[in-house]
């Protein structure tokens, strides 16, 4: 459930950190006996198994494990959080509605559990409840030591963009780069912000850094469109044509390529 595809953000941030650091060594009756003897270990193992099942798409198996985990320990922060992830992942209106209660319960049980805040922020953003999502992402992004902190800051920046707050979005993306200098989402989003402000040198530097980072990997449609517009602003016609050819060859049906074709018909239009 990553939120990057070909270097491009597909969904707001990481929905959940599925690896809970629990060894999944279930070996027959001996393990079953140990789980019964140690309820906390059982809950941790069931929750970790559920995470793996979610990752593999077996949502029914995930639900069975989480039901057992919560029956054993209703106050498990991790199991409540994971149940919220599961119900949101399933996607039906009734389950999506139920997911919120599990995220809220996880946070109420442990307000410092950053992963639940990030996951709840993703949930809220998906419902277009952006101010509430921002509050959750800010908490998660401020949690030093949290492994998903970069993703939370990326999510925060992209949510600020949803409410047209580019100043705070810029701040969040810069924080994401401080947390992880290889954040391609932060680089591309910042380059877009700088391009919109006509800070071409800054936009170009970030974009070129992104290209060096991905090496021979194929760019996504959005990054190619960004490169086209930066090259156009720099009057680099050769580079611009190269990116246009890549965009047309790899993503002919993309919104970005259709936008390019539209601009060819209306030269006076603004290239955004």
From TrEMBL:
Q: What is this protein called?
A: Type IV pilus biogenesis/stability protein PilW
NCBIfam families to which the protein is assigned, alphabetical: type_IV_pilW (TIGR02521)
Q: Which InterPro entries match?
A: Pilus_4_PilW, TMTC_O-mannosyl-trnsfr, TPR-like_helical_dom_sf, TPR_rpt
> In the UniProt record, what gene is named as encoding this protein?
pilW
Is DNA-binding among the key words of this record?
Answer: no
| Domain of life of the source | Bacteria
Keywords tagged on the record: TPR repeat
Q: Repeats (TPR): which ranges? A: 43-76, 150-183
Record's keyword annotation contains Zinc-finger: no
Lineage of the organism: Bacteria, Pseudomonadati, Pseudomonadota, Gammaproteobacteria, Moraxellales
